[in-house]
Amino acid sequence: MKHALLILSLFCTIPLVQAQDLRVVAVSPAHGSANVALTTPVSITFNQAINPADSLLIFPLDTLLQQQLSDPSRVSLSPDGRTITFNLTHQADRDYLWVVFYAKSISGNRLAQRYTFYYTTASTAGEHTVSGHLVEFSSGGPGEIYPRLATSSVASWQMPRLTLSISAASSSGQTPPSRLLISQPPTVQSGHLGNWLVLLTTSPSLEITTVARIAVSAADGAFTLDYVRPGTYYLLALFFEPGNLGEPAGYGIYDANQDDTPDALQIPPDLSGLNVPVIRLITTTALEAATLAQSAFQAEASDAQIVFLQGFVDTTGRSFVWNFTAYAPSQDTAYTLEVRGGAPGALKPIMSRPYRQMQPLPLNDMQDSDAIVAAFMNRFPSTQHSGFQLMAGQLYHWFTSQGFLQPSLYPLDPELPIWLVQEWRPLAAPLQGELEYSAAYNLQGNEQVAYEPIRAKAALNAALEKAPSRQEGDGIIGFEVSPFDPFSGKASEWSVDLVAGGQALQIRLANNLVVHIDTLEADWRSLPKLPYPDMVDSDQAADTALAHNATEFLAALSSGWGRLVGGFLGPDYGLEVDANTPLYGIFLTGGDPWREARYFVHMGTGAFVTEQVLTTREAAPASFTGGLRAVYPHPVGREATIEVVLMQSGPLTLRVYNVLGQEVGRIFEGFLPAGTHQLRWQPEALPAGIYLLQLQQSGQVYHRSVVVSGQ
């Protein structure tokens, strides 16, 4: 979905609904109100004081309201904690829809029933009603349900997440936190047919702009959509699994003629007694989903075999969505498909490279995803596992073709098929960002390599070990990493500048795995070198910063970002130290209003040097906050590298458009961790001209124009 619902949340896990349920008792404007003034505040009142330190999930189905709600000054909580108010500006002659999805009271009670309401700034509301029941879909196995719907916009409707600040005091008398953090969603009891979102849309293709009315089903599946205006509509139902609000875990359509597409409904008259068959999608292991995928591939090409699989799984090794790629030698064609909730989608032909180089996975002779995840959790134990990225195949070909890893740096036998598990663990509040843990296993489940966040000296050692040669005058010039965890002194995405064999190099690491060695056009031989290994490590430097006001600075932030730099920083930051003094710089940034604190520590002795605090962005060097950072070489010839910076982990898509707005290529589609990534692009099929790159990730869209030379 291109634009979606506002989600305001610190999610938590809910047991069975409690006796004293939290409920919405009033909204303003009242449901069905017409001729609402454009500056009317929107208020939601509960029967108990809500807990602002926990969660709010609220969906206003209007992109302009969503933009306004990104301003924390527009949101307030009443002194008794029962009413949340949004101070908004509406548009004339427009209908507005809201959903209250989740809240928790001060006493710990949860919202029992999701709640929707409607109002309009037009002079009158609609006067018609559409009602009926959700019913269980009664035929067809997991691979046979709604073949076209499973790959439609209905089945892939997503909700990007936003954050909310509350400026008033809670009913307990304490000042609530200024930001509600995002974590795992709550368990909401659905009653199988209850708590579904039932939508009346103006198009069978579901987007936020097509939703005309929305309601929440009762426990028995009953629903009523009222205040409907005359027109042609389509009736849809969605259920969002608490563990994955990004994609529906159930869906259904009103389809009386059973052609797998929504039937048009004409209003007037009022409609009642409509039955909407719904299905709840299931999670599967990789090999369970692969069985369905393999059958679909071989229906297209009898010699097609799965060579690559990918999924984001829970702690049981199961997922709602698996992506598979198969290669058919007879056609020299690769195909990809998605198995969503046990239902395979449509096949798509893709470029055969690198899949023609990958051998088929032995699906009958390999460990399944549940066993691999269990081994990983045993290797890296934690009480807060949230999910894992899994891949399987001869991943050397995949990683090197995508430009993630230079071929000579691959740590295993290139022809060894492996399972790869990656987990990104969030930093402790208030810091944003994640640290990566990863491990590779052969297909029988035996660990081959494992990596975890490291400190500065380990990163420098790993970089030097991969330096091609050493001679007098060589050494480390400096390094940088972000995000950085000042509480452990560790990080995952390191960049080290050094001289080796008289040549200037930049070495990039994912933990202690070197992934890129880039030769630079610079002469650093005469520059001073860091005193490695005779230096304090980054944890000691961070401890020194925490002891000199960094702890207090972090405590005052609602959210922030940590960065570590090492080098001869005095001249760059106007410090009153000798220019040849090696320093750590621990930089902490964030807050509203924005602030940045810099703590400098002597790299040789560990002594605290000085502190700088900036209160305006103009005083700080320009920083890149995410998106498409660079394309090189440019203009683009036969091949280019696209540098992408992600502020958080998640699925992304990188597309190419021509000047007519037509999509002419898809460079990458999949899951990537937070950090900097280099994606390889080979536009050999494109004629010379100007093109637009579009990166979509976590509800954000970034663009960059490029010139393709055609040579």
UniProtKB/TrEMBL annotation:
Endpoints of the signal sequence: 1-19
Alphabetized InterPro entries for the sequence: SbsA_Ig (IPR032812), Secre_tail (IPR026444)
UniProt keyword terms in alphabetical order: Signal
A Pfam family of this chain: Big_5
Protein name per Swiss-Prot or TrEMBL: T9SS type A sorting domain-containing protein
SbsA Ig-like domain segment(s): 21-121
Originating organism: Rhodothermus marinus
